[in-house]
Amino acid sequence: MGLTSKSTGLSLLKNKYNIDKDDKDMIVIALAGNPNTGKSTLFNTLTGLNQHTGNWPGKTVCNAKGTFKYRDKEFLLVDLPGTYSLLANSVEEEIARDFICFENPDITIVITDATCLERNLNLVLQVMEITDRVIVCLNLMDEAKRKGISIDIEKLESRLGVPVIPTVARDNKGIDKLLETIYKMINGNIEANPYRLKYSDEIESIVEKIEPILEESLGSKYNTRWLALRLIDGDKAIFNSIDNILKENSV
Amino acid sequence: MELVSKSFVSYKIRKHEIPLNELPVGKKARIKMLSKNILPRRRLLDLGLIPNTIVKTERISPSGNPIAYNIRGAIIALRKEEIENVIVEILD
User: Fold this and answer.
1) Which one of B40, B42, B72 has the shortest CB-CB distance to A119?
2) Which of A67, A130, B16, B33 is the most buried (most CB within 10 A)?
3) DSSP notation for A185-196
4) A contacts of B74 (beta carbons < 8 Å)
5) How many CB pairs under 8 A join A and B?
6) CB-CB neighbors (< 8 A) of A87 in chain B
7) pLDDT in tens for each of the 251 residues of chain A?
C-alpha cells in the first residue's frame, strides 16, 4: 500500500483547514502573531495577487491562504488569526494553536510588533515550545525607529535561538532577507536551536511520565511534550483535539 | 466600601493596594497579584498583566466601563469585571 492522502494527513489538511496541498513539494508556512502586527500586510506582500480567502469550516473566523514562488520552491502561506497566546481561550487561538501543533507547517513565522516587542515575545515563546522551525519577523521597524526604540537584533537572535528578521512589510523592506532565511531554513542551512522553557522539577517529572504514554498512542508526529504540558494545564480543548487525532488514526 | 471580593478573602490588602479598576486616570501602579479564582486569569497574563508589571490608567469611558490601560507599551481596554480581582500597588 502506498502513501494515501489519508495516511499522510493531507486529507486532514484539506478537510479541516480548507487547504489543498495539491503539490507535494509545496512548502507550508504559517503566519502567526499578535493582532495588528501586520500579518496580512506581510501576507499580501509575499503572495501578491495570488491570495484568496477561505473559511475555517464551522467558524466565523476567516483565514487566508496564498501561494508564492521563490527560487525553485513553491510556498503555501497560511495567514492565521491574530492571537496573544496559544493557550486557547478563544476560537481564534484554538485555530492558530491546532494549526501549528497538528498540521506541522514546515515553517512558522511569528510576526511581532517592534514598537512593543516585549508583549509579543509571549507568543514567540509559546510557538517555540511547539515547533523548532520558527522565524521571528520584527515588523513595524519604521515606527519603532520613530518612537526612538532600537533593538539589538543579534542579541535577540542568540537569546531566542531562532532567526530574527527586521522588516517594514508596508514598504517591502526586509522581505528579501526574510525569503532568503525561509529558503535557507527549508534547505537545512540554518540550524535553529530554540530556547526551551524549563519548568519546575515537579512538573518536569510529571511530563516525563505522560510523554511516553502520549507517544505510544499518537505516534511521534506530534510534539508530545507540549501536549503533556497542556494536559497538566487541564486544557479541555486539547482533550478534544487529541480525541480527534485518535479517531483519525483508528480509521 | 467593599474592597475585597469574596473570591480571595485570604489575601490581605495592604496600604496603597487597590483593585486595578480603582486606579485613577494618569496614575501608575505595580501589579501585585491576580486572584487564582478569576476566570480569565490566563487571558490577563497573556495580555501582559503579570505580577510586577507597571500599568497606567490612560482613560475611562463615559460610563466608567471599560477602562483603557497602558500595559507594556500597548493601550488595552479592559472590563471592570475582568480586573477587579487584580490587585495593584499605587506608585508615586
Assistant:
1) B72
2) A130
3) HHTT-S------
4) 113, 116, 119
5) 27
6) 42, 46
7) 455 544 444 444 444 555 555 556 789 999 999 888 888 888 888 887 555 544 444 343 556 788 888 888 899 988 888 888 888 677 778 888 888 888 889 999 999 999 989 989 999 999 999 998 999 999 999 999 999 999 999 999 999 999 999 999 888 899 999 999 999 999 989 888 889 888 999 999 999 999 999 888 887 788 889 999 988 888 777 888 888 878 877 76
Give the C-alpha distances (Å, rounded to integers) separating A39 from A30, A45, A77, A109.
10, 10, 11, 9
Distance between alpha carbon B82 and the CA centroid of its chain, in Å? 8
Integer angstrom CA distances of residue A96 from A62, A70, A159, A169, B25: 11, 25, 25, 21, 35
Residues 6+ apart with CB under 8 A from A177: A165, A167
The one-letter amino acid code at A237 reads A
Q: What pTM was computed for the model?
A: 0.81
